[in-house]
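One such given next:

>
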Amino acid sequence: MNTKGKEYHSIRILMAVIMSTVMGVIASFLVAQNPNANIPAFPVFCLFNVTESIVVGVFIAIFIPLDKLSNALVSRFNIKNYALHGMVYAIPLSIGNGILVSGIVIFVNVFMSYLRINPANRPPLLGMWTSSWFHILLPMIVISYVTSLIFTPLVIKFISTINRNTNNGKKLKFFQVEVLVIFAAVIVAITIVMDLVIVEKSKATIKGKVSDLVAANSRQIELNIDSYLERMKTTPSLLFSDKAYYEYDATDSSIDTYDKVKNEELIKNRIVDIGLMNNYSDFGIIYSDNHKVGWISNGTQNLYSDGDIYNPLSELIGDNPDQEAWGFGINGDIERIYYLKRVNEHAILVSSVYTRELSSVFVYPEQLDNIDIWLTDKDGRIIFSSKANDIGDIIPEYIDNAIGHRLSQAGASSAITTKQYFINVNICANGWNVICAVPADIVLKETKNLRTFTIRISVLMSIIFVLAGLLIINRISEPIDDMVSSLQYKAEVDKLSGVMNKATFQEETEKRLFFKENGEHCAFIMMDMDNFKMVNDKHGHSYGDQVIIKFGKMLRGLFDEDTLIGRLGGDEFAIFIEAGKDNNDKEGLEKRVTEGLNLIMERFEEVFKEEKEDCKLSVSAGVYYESGEKPSFSEIYEKADIALYQSKHAGKSRYTVYMEGSK
């Protein structure tokens, strides 16, 4: 594939946009499949990557000559087959684009993720990039290769059609519009990237603020619960102010009945005095023979149908060195929280409060009205919640998975951020967990609105910019277009004949040959006027110029705009005709050429009747038909010229078709 010319520049740019778009979409999809990827909403993420890919791809197409490597590879193996030519030609382009585009796109994504990671936990940036890059490198090369094979022929056809249907007077305007659109695309890309960076920075700031707010709220609730539970512990400890309270053993048979009654009355009065300090549901002492002093509610007693309360509660305390225990969900009871303290070897102090009493300590700021708060025991069972209907249940699985481990040190705190939630865990003094969670979509709702707004504004401003640019260009370029069109016409058209001059005819013919595919038919006709020198010698050069003018006008009137007609010098003219996409057969082309040449011969005799009688002026032609793959201009010119020579040698005023082997 010949890579010279303005057409190939357009092909490279358009192919870069197509390949980059496909790779950007695929890269976004592959990254989004990673469960650990912290990305925004997929449409925005995909738009970001596609825009970035296009900018990188166009830069590569303009400044990195990958096409030269492709040409060198094709030339090295001297590949002529059209299909094989395309398959080999696409190899350097796909590998180069796949490596560079994916490498830069992944680096930007990894770098943005890197900035969002806690500095204390950041892995090496190069390692993150390398790992992510190699994960998508092979798919990107394959996608780039397949895209190149599929779209390159289509793009060539598209550019060919545009160039064929665009007259010279409009090329400058197309170039101006192309520059404007590319510049607008760059502006859009830069604006969107800046907007997304601003939105991401805003999102990170909001996340940090919300995370701090959730952590502060979680810590405050932990302190409130610690204070509440501490009161539950401190109040019963007043029983240990006198040995008479904590050394008395109701199971001791050596104590007479009078002393028992007296001691228990003393303890009961003390329990009543102390119990009034808190809103207890249970507050009393249970001895090993299940004898009770104080008040033990029916609700607690009904938990043990066999009447044995002491032994199950004693087992809860177990070998705890502090000889105490906290209980919740005992025998399925989720209405009370129990604090148990061993009084002596045969006695346990039992105190409990209703779980609903904890509502006074579960407070949170108005900014976090969507917060979920749980108090759980060490097994993850919910003791109290901002949602009353889940008390007694196990903490939700998504929260449990996010936490991932249990903190064991009292007062410890851990903040976890996932795609769905901002979570904070605090450990109370007794080992229970305070868990606060805020849905991320609610917190980041404003950033989503901001992102949508900034993107819309960017697109709108870009559209306004393009429209204003088009208007300005149109106003400024009108006089320039006229001048350029005039200069271009003078540069491209032979001033005598009105057909293309030699340089323009050769350039346009080479362009048609460049876009020609193997199997498409075309014809190249060489012609000149026999005995034209006699006209100049007999009537002068001015008269000869008039003959050239009339002959050029005659040719222009006999062929349509798709036919290339040029004056190669003196009285020598050339015509290039293509079979056309709708009628690409050799017989049809030969019929068109034959009819055209016959008409030229007939009209020539009518237009130049006097010159023919006076100077024996006539016209001879040579025709060459080509159906191979991308011949050069010099090749078809040489063969048509041989056929022209044969016409003159055979007697002039005729045309000859080139036959292989002719000389």
